[in-house]
Amino acid sequence: MKLFVYHTPERTPTDRLPDCAVVIDVLRATTTIATALDAGAEAVQTFSNIEELMRQSESWSTDKRLRAGERGGMTVKGFELGNSPLACKPSVVKSKRLFLTTTNGTRALERVEHSPQVITAAQINRRSAVNYLLETQPETVWIVGSGWEGDYSVEDTACAGAIAQSILQQSDASLIDLFGNDEVIGAIALYEQWKDNLLNVFRQCSHGQRLLKLNGDEDLFYCSQTDIVDVLPIQKQPGVLVKY
């Protein structure tokens, strides 16, 4: 297994795809996806385009669907949910399909949706992602952060480092065999620096600051927790994620 970390989907190679892509958007899309599936959602279907989401969701009865999404951190007008994982309670999402669009995470998923295997990870389900990779041993793994509108996000890179570090600790492979690019080393170093105080760095980072202005401190706290959800979202068809 060879690990590659890319800070944003725009930085991934354009001439190939990995055997397995791990998409990360800690604040908040992949945290929301994991939480929704853990709470009993039938699936989460992701869209980068709001109009396409509206078109496809129209074919579902209103009692079987929820439209969820944000732009700039704010709930899309007319949608039942925004992008807060705290809203994904069993009483709300159980047996329903979430039609989800976000500023960043859904773009990252779209970039790698044709990879043979696609999973999503966040800090809350880090262990589930690591266990899947150790179990399946894909030859090449891209850990793709979503960033913010094409720019680097520290929280996504920290999560990538948390995944890479755990794999390194549990693998017999040497550093040279396991690490595919320098970003893996940087991501591990970042996670090691902040692993005992992720909430603090989330509050300092630019995306965390945006959420704080929207009264999102409870979201930040939830998203900063490690291994609290034992669920792995996996793509069963392009853009459609289900519980593994």
Question: How would you explain this protein's 3D organization?
Answer:
The structure is a single chain. With 244 residues, this protein is an alpha/beta fold. The protein has helices at 29-38, 50-57, 90-93, 105-112, 126-136, 154-170, 175-178, 182-194, 198-204, 206-213, 217-223, and strands at 2-6, 20-24, 43-47, 65-71, 74-75, 97-101, 117-121, 140-145, 233-237, 240-243. Strands 5-4-6-3-10-9 form a six-stranded mixed sheet. A hairpin with a 2-residue loop joins β9 and β10.
List keywords for this structure.
six-stranded mixed beta sheet, 20% strand, four-stranded parallel beta sheet, 244 residues, globular, alpha/beta
Structural class: alpha/beta
Total beta strands: 10
Q: Give the low-pLDDT segments.
A: none
Q: Could you tell me the strand content as a percent range?
A: 15-25%
Gyration radius, in Å = 17 Å
Count of alpha/pi helices:
11
Topology:
Layout: E1 2-6, E2 20-24, H1 29-38, E3 43-47, H2 50-57, E4 65-71, E5 74-75, H3 90-93, E6 97-101, H4 105-112, E7 117-121, H5 126-136, E8 140-145, H6 154-170, H7 175-178, H8 182-194, H9 198-204, H10 206-213, H11 217-223, E9 233-237, E10 240-243
Parallel strand pairs: 1-8, 2-7, 2-8, 3-6, 4-6
Antiparallel strand pairs: 3-10, 4-5, 9-10
Helix pairs in contact: 5-6, 6-8, 9-10
